Amino acid sequence: MSSTYVGKPSPTRLEQLLAGNFGAPSSKVLVGPGPGLDAAVLDLGDGRVMAIAEDPIFPAPGLPLEIMGQFTVHIGASDVAVTGVKPTYMTYTLLLPRTSPESDATAIITSISKHCKDLGITVLGGHTGWYDAVTIPTVGGVAVWGFADKDKWVSPGGAKEGDALLLTKGPSIEAAALLAILSRDRLRAELGEQTVARACARSDQITVVVDALTAFEVDGVHAMHDATEGGVLGGLWEMAAASGVGIEADLDAVDVPEDIAQVSAALGFDPWAAISEGTLLVAADPEAAPGVMAAWQRVGIESWQMGRFTGEVSEVRAKRKGRKETVAEPEKDPFWDLFFAGLAADSQS
What Å distances lie between residue 266 and 112, 190, 224, CA to CA? Predict the structure, then answer.
């Protein structure tokens, strides 16, 4: 793989890179590293499990630093929430350039604390420092974890043949929001102020904490997955690979929000293949699916039933514009080239 590669490597490349380098083995590991597995799950031996996840967080140009605190909490907590376990504790590492004023650190730290309070998460520690090697404020890692009864959790690899496939909010939530913010001036001229404002406002939807915890309250949910890098298509491939089942997905059954459709068309990326933190994919017993969707509706989350899980091992087929296609293993997310091109243009303006 080239040293100029941007973003996460494909699942196959990542497996080759790690090549079983996971330290000492443990019989406590119920869910360990693997494609599409958002969080590890450990058997604590006392009738409980612990779900834990870690992520880096980068700032989004054009947004206040306080939003970085929101992303830190919600993106980290989302990876735990998809197991059905309530995120409860957090640590994080905040790295800043030597030129960053202390007020930048204060803005991020207080925002993290606020959003943790909103979700009932306690910050237990971490690391904060200023370094010459750091060029932008970065959360080098946020670890989030929580506890549940041993039979009260799910994995992205728990989908079963015959399950209904559900999706919240629509595709490309994160890509559309952040690229609209970064390319706001260009897009205003092409799409108009209202469309761009709607897309930018989706930065508040970059979370699946409420989506996942609400769904898991309904009996019959077998698996949940956050459609991050690789977007919805990548998330479907990962769920199928992790579960060892197939998927028949009907993309035409989902109403792609108009602002997302317009932003993706203007910037030239596939909204179904671009990073979509905020979009939750759920495998649920067909009889439970209406109850899950009704629960989402009660908390103001739009959703669609867009397919089913099949007995075809790890094969994903998606219908788009009336034509079926086989979904391949996700490669480089189109978001990253557009994001860094936008950064370069912004720095020159």
Answer: 33, 8, 31
SS3 53: strand
CA dist 212 and 207 (Å) reads: 10
Burial of 83 from C-beta contacts in 10 A (0-12 / 13-18 / 19+): buried
Task: Give Cβ neighbours of residue 117 (< 8 Å, ≥ 6 apart).
Answer: none
Alpha-carbon torsion 11, 340, 79, 282, what sign?
Answer: negative
Torsion 241-247-252-258 (CA) sign: negative
Residue found by looking up tokens 């899980």 in the block:
309
| Rounded-to-integer distance, Cα 294 and Cα 167, Å | 13
DSSP per-residue string spanning 260-319 = HHHHHHHHT--TTTS--TTPEEEEE-TTTHHHHHHHHHHTT--EEEEEEEESSTT-EEEE
Task: Name the residue among 208, 225, 189 with its Cα closest to residue 301.
Answer: 208
DSSP-assigned beta bridge partners for residue 89: 122, 145
Burial (CB < 10 A; 0-12, 13-18, 19+), residue 285, is middle
What count of other Cβ atoms lies within 10 Å of the Cβ of residue 152?
Answer: 13
Domains of the chain, each with CATH number or no CATH: 27-149 (3.30.1330.10), 164-344 (3.90.650.10)
Q: Which of 251, 238, 252, 268 is nearest to 176 (CA)?
A: 268
Task: Give dist(CA 232, CA 227) in Å, integer.
Answer: 5
- Reduced to 3 states, what is the DSSP secondary structure of residue 195? helix
The model carries a pTM of 0.94
In angstroms, how far is the first alpha carbon of the chain from the final one?
33
Residue pair 305/164 in contact by the 8 Å Cβ criterion: yes
DSSP annotation of 120: T
Q: Which parts of the chain register pLDDT below 70? A: 1-5, 342-349
- Which is it for strands 246-250 and 316-320: parallel, antiparallel or unpaired? parallel
In 3D space, the residue among 243, 294, 38 whose CA is nearest the CA of residue 144 turns out to be 38
Q: For 297-346, what is each residue's pLDDT tens digit?
A: 999 999 999 999 999 998 999 999 999 999 999 888 999 888 877 666 65
